[in-house]
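Shape matters. Shown next:

___
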Amino acid sequence: MTYGSTRARRYANHTSGRKYDVAGKEKGKKVALPRTNPKDAASLVKAEAAEVFRGFLERVKADEKYLRLAERHREVYESQPLPEDISEFEEDMDVK
């Protein structure tokens, strides 16, 4: 839901979905593209979608069961240290 909210907000601000000019990136600088007119119909739809996602996200973050499950997930998966030797994962990561 966080991703949905931020992605919809990005498209509301930039209809192409790109915040920075690709040509500027090649020169080593991030050049921000101008924002879309906020009264543009597409921008209004995306902004509305972002608010819907944000509303659901707030509801989920207030839910007791979600909070318990999120804490359990952090305890199980985020408390384990990453292995020092990652060679067994290189194929999955498409590293060459």
Summary: The chain has one domain: 2-80.
